[in-house]
Amino acid sequence: MTQMPKHKGEGHRQRLREKFLDSGLSGFHDYEVIELLLTLGNPRKDCKEAAKAALAKFETLQGVFEASVNDLCSVDGIGPKNVFGIKLIQSVADRYLEKKVIMKDPLNNSKALFDYLYHSMASKDRECFKVLFLDAKNRVTAIETLFTGTLTASSVYPREVVRAALDRSAAALIFAHNHPSGDSEPSPADYAITRQLLFACRTVGITVHEHIVVGNHQYFSFADQGHIAQMNREYQKTT
């Protein structure tokens, strides 16, 4: 019986897989990580040059992961079949980091919270406003992106936030949004909406613990900078 000839790169790919199983990604080039992911959707195709081309176009490994399906398919050698692995790993990472936050107390596990927020928001090209809903024991019960905006701003409506919190029987909230510019310094509008949200939530007995602005490898914490406490004092003077 005649054996089918091995396709180009089969031995190289097997060596990469064995190397990963033996020592994880230590020592791997970024293009080799992309190459392995491309083979998940097309195991008989040589994907090395496509992986290098994707890395050259999107500049970083994270850039490749965050690229849209259409943009990835514009790279020579990448199509609807082998783009599967790249998009899968991005979704799996999001789910994994989210699960590390759900039903945990983020106030006592800030690293897991910031890891999740940074991974899920930092590279977005539009502002996204997330709300973490907490129960009376400060455990996260749900996370939802309530508003998605333009390149520079997101329209956030306190009434919608309060409604969502009441629907989920939340006792407390944490807000987070990203700055596509990469600069985590809050704008005057960020201060204003944080104050509006805190006042609206306090009116119905819901606590606001934090508002985090996610930038490029950095973040700004309204709570750490004392702004949440100051806004609470302002609210108390009005009641």
What fraction strand? 5-15%
Rg, please?
22 Å
Low-confidence stretches: none
Largest sheet: 5 strands, mixed
SS-based structural class?
Answer: alpha+beta
Query: Strands of the biggest beta sheet: in what spatial order?
Result: 2-1-3-4-5
For the termini, the CA-CA separation is 88 Å
Could you name the CATH homologous superfamily of the largest domain?
A: Cytidine Deaminase, domain 2
CATH architecture of the largest domain: 3-Layer(aba) Sandwich
Number of domains: 2
Topology-level CATH name of the largest domain: Cytidine Deaminase, domain 2
So what's the overall shape? elongated
Number of beta strands = 5
Q: Give the helix proportion (percent range).
A: 40-55%
Write up this protein.
The radius of gyration is 22 Å and the shape is elongated. With 239 residues, the protein is α+β, with helices and mostly antiparallel strands. The longest helix is centred in the middle third of the chain and has 16 residues, at 84-99. The protein has a five-stranded mixed β-sheet with strand order 2-1-3-4-5, sandwiched between helices. The mean pLDDT is 89. It folds into two domains: 10-93, DNA polymerase, domain 1; 100-238, Cytidine Deaminase, domain 2. The protein has helices spanning 10-23, 30-41, 48-58, 61-66, 69-73, 84-99, 110-121, 158-167, 188-203, 227-238; strands spanning 128-134, 140-148, 172-178, 207-214, 219-221. α9 packs across α10.
